[in-house]
Design brief:
about 130 residues, two-stranded parallel sheet, about 5% strand
């Protein structure tokens, strides 16, 4: 999975399956980010709750594996291209959900029930998570 693939998916230019099909090298969190992920050097893309809600829907519709959430979040968090507004409630929710997706062993497990709860949190701001 690369930054350009994520951007193209979020813009509706490619199918979600492209995020997993092309992924021959995983971001194992050991190798440097820039060696694993094809980074976008210019511009910025603002991640909004609706983007993550779409990802939740892809998982709930079984078009994206649960395990992919961790890799997806890792790339967004490490990126200089993707960003979110931490000064707003929406941006705070985006940051919180990405952190939880990227750290399932210290936060919430990557389960279908939790994906439903993340979707609710992203759309309403209300939380009721299962550990």
């Amino acid at each position: 999975m690369t930054e350009p693939q994520i951007r193209d998916y979020l813009l509706g230019l490619i199918d979600v399956s492209e995020l997993e099909n092309v992924d021959t090298v995983t971001t194992d969190k050991v190798r440097p980010y820039w060696k694993v992920v094809d980074m976008i050097d210019e511009g910025e893309f603002i991640i909004e709750p609706r983007h993550l809600v779409n990802i939740c829907d892809e998982v709930l519709n079984e078009k994206l594996r649960l395990e992919t959430l961790d890799n997806f979040a890792f790339i967004l968090i490490g990126s200089d291209y993707f960003t979110w507004d931490t000064e707003t409630a929406d941006g705070e929710r985006v940051g919180q959900v990405l952190f939880e997706w990227n750290n399932p062993t210290i936060n919430y497990a990557l389960t279908m029930d939790n994906v439903r709860q993340w979707k609710t949190y992203l759309t309403t701001g209300q939380r009721k998570m299962n550990s």
